[in-house]
Design brief:
Fumarylacetoacetate hydrolase, domain 2, alpha+beta, 6-stranded mixed sheet, binds manganese (II) ion
Length: 234
């Protein structure tokens, strides 16, 4: 673009997707990365081997974020929508090839989020050795609470993480049971791609993932971080 010239947008540019921060500021989302199978009980329920294999990653589009309190459209193209409650790490700085200690210093804050999953589409992708996006990276697939500053929460080495559907508890885990810590996940991601300010990293779900139907209300909590509630339209 020429200096001083107004942008000549080919189409109207979107506003950047954002998440509210507990201090009243706004966190602009750059990328959303998700860690697969980071709790051993969940790795077992998905037919995996809960050993300390390096973490693996998949992505959602930045505009998949939706705030707590939202009423969501029930996603099409699925007969098996699943909830996965996860600790979300919000990144505040840029880095590559980080050590876990360097990665820890890039953590801006934490939220509790949902890695909503079209499990039937993901299962098809696995069976046919195709990418996971159709199962994972759909509209409104990342409900997220407000972000609490890491300076206030501390390192979150332990704490209850839960999910209930219509008041009935479905998932109940502890952050202490993560195979890879948030700092280790960020360090591993930074060996594959650069991490940037505005990145969100969903750190994996504990056991108990299961189906959600139209009309359901989901409530997620993470001790020391916050809570999130969403409802699917009938
Ligand atoms: Mn997940």
């Amino acid at each position: 673009m020429t200096e001083g010239a107004a942008a000549q947008w080919a189409i109207a540019p979107d506003d950047r997707p954002c998440v509210t921060v507990a201090d009243g500021s706004t966190f602009p989302v750059h990328r959303i990365w998700c860690v697969g199978r980071n709790y051993s009980e969940h790795a077992r329920e998905m037919g995996g081997d809960p050993t300390r294999e390096p973490p693996f990653f998949f992505a959602k589009p930045a505009d998949a974020v939706v705030p707590s309190g939202s009423k969501l459209r029930f996603p099409r193209a699925t007969d098996e929508l699943h909830h996965e409650v996860e600790l979300v790490v919000a990144i505040g700085g840029h880095g590559s090839d980080l050590s876990p200690e360097e990665a820890r210093r890039l953590i801006f804050g934490y939220a509790v989020g949902l890695d909503m999953t079209r499990r039937d589409r993901q299962a098809e992708a696995k069976a046919t050795a195709r990418p996971w996006e159709i199962g994972k990276a759909f509209d409104q697939s990342c409900p997220i609470s407000e972000i609490r500053l890491a300076a206030e929460t501390g390192d979150l080495a332990a704490g209850a993480i839960t999910l209930s559907v219509n008041g009935a508890e479905r998932q109940s885990g502890d952050l202490a049971d993560m195979i890879w810590s948030p700092a280790e996940c960020i360090a591993a991601l930074s060996r594959i791609v650069d991490v940037f300010p505005g990145d969100l990293i969903l750190t994996g779900t504990p056991a108990g993932v299961g189906p959600v139907v139209a009309g359901d209300t989901l409530r997620a909590t993470c001790e020391g971080v916050g809570e999130l509630s969403i409802t699917y339209e009938r």
